[in-house]
Amino acid sequence: MNTISKKLYRWVLVCFSTATLFQGCAKFETREFYADKPQSIIDQETLDAYKELKNYVQATGQPDFKLATELSYTDLVSNSVLYRLAQQHFDQISLTNGLRHLDAVQDDGSIRIPDFTSAMEAQASTGLSTHVGHLLWHENQGADYLQSLIADIIIPGESGKDIVVDFENDELGKSYPMIVGGDLSANRVVTDPDGKSGNALNIKGQQTFPQFQITLPEGRKLGDYLNVMIDFKGEGCCGLYGAGMRLAISANTGNVTFASFGGPSSFGVPGGQWGRGLIELPISSLNLTPAQKEWTEFVLTVGSATGSGDYLIDNITMSWEIVGETIIKTPAEKKEIISGEMEKWIKAIGEDGKETVKSWSVVYQPMDEDTPSELRNGTGINPDDLPTNTFYWQDYLGKDYASIAIGMIKAYASTNDQIFFTETGLLDNPAKIQGLADFIAYTDGKGTTVDGIATELSLNVGDNKEKVESTLQQLAETKKLIKISFDIGTGTTTNQATTALYKQQMDMYKWFIESYFNIIPSNQRAGITFRSPADQPSTSAWRPNQPVGIWTNSGGYQRKAAYVGVVEALQSQ
């Protein structure tokens, strides 16, 4: 039997056997089973049937509008699931939480931003637009480093003593120039009769004063010296008393004008014994001129004005003191230093982001909370009293600090890049909007155009919609591009959120986005940014354990009801 016949045989046999089996049953009863899908699966399938969000954006008439989401540098570098999801749904990635001058500046002042560099490399291949901030803020700054550069230079004081003459290297019998009142030959270097201090100078004769050529140690000048001290040994007959000690300083040997002091005994020198370090003659008594105080070489004349001298002197010592000095940097010097540091910082960012970033938040939170018409500042506050890592660039560069920064980023990135100023807290402090608008007008007037205003709104279901609409209206009135980063919570933690709250969240997302489109003119729309695209985990620093996103943060980032609200709002453009 060939192969085909065998197969046919088997097929017939199977058919026969099956027929026999069915005939052998009293009755064949068909039973059908139906398994209903859980409503949760049906609902999720309905959500998943919607297109990716960017498919609902109408580009016509709003050329600057970007549908964006906030991510971290880690998301980009690791190519996280959330990053891959973002690439499907958004046309711009916003990175405004990773640039910290505090982390970037090194001890030597160099700038290292490896995470930013790697993120830019990852983003370059996606074709997505990139918005980066914030270049200048007052928090998370390398404040200690920056303050050290502009701090006063304190030169500490110094003091000491220099032995200017000690006779130890002199040959016995050597004599010195003298103003002589007696026998010059009797004034010789001798051995200390006590045998304790090596050599000494024996001075004999009436009104006889030795003169010593002094060269001061390098770095010191005569004006630094306070006193001349002399070791003295003499009897009452021969110098211990008399008319007192004499001191003079001159440019040359010869006649001098003396300053007079008490005799050696008045300084506590005992008769016939060495009085070491007891005679101390203040140089101020000489009334030196400013020119003399600059001398580093001079002639020192000293001795006891006695009528019958026969005494020993040794170890002529001059005590000195250099008063400490504080060099205070001028405002102009501080400005130059801080401007240089700003340029290093912005240069590093601009060069690494040049090919990828086309939108920059240059300054963040510039306006003062209490006086919104003014810039924040730390003027008049000791830097040590400011919060840790706080540094106000504007304190040293003035109101032009933003204009300076814009010039720098456009120089190192691209002149065509969009420039934004970002301010927060506008719902509760709407006066900031006018203050910011005025600051932008000032900056524009410096020839550095600010394209738009960016802000962050942290909303909850049930928030005052009139307040939100008023804020949007005031922003629109600035005539600048408006970019809003936002998220909407339920007012609860994730485990407390109910189906009803998620429905309110969906409605709130829809309402807010529609309000943006209704209030912000199309030519001013820079876009909306989902600050928290997914619900926040309990470990998050921002709204921890709150269901603020349009995706869950578990189960593979499932779409939430809020996703529908976003879609419907985008469809209403």
Automatic annotation (TrEMBL):
Gene3D superfamilies: Glycosidases. GO terms for molecular function: hydrolase activity, hydrolyzing O-glycosyl compounds. InterPro entries: GH (IPR017853), GH10_dom (IPR001000). GO terms for biological process: polysaccharide catabolic process. Keywords: Carbohydrate metabolism, Hydrolase, Polysaccharide degradation. Transmembrane segments: none annotated. Residues 310-570 form the GH10 domain. This is GH10 domain-containing protein. It comes from Sphingobacterium corticibacterium. The lineage of its organism: Bacteria, Pseudomonadati, Bacteroidota, Sphingobacteriia, Sphingobacteriales.
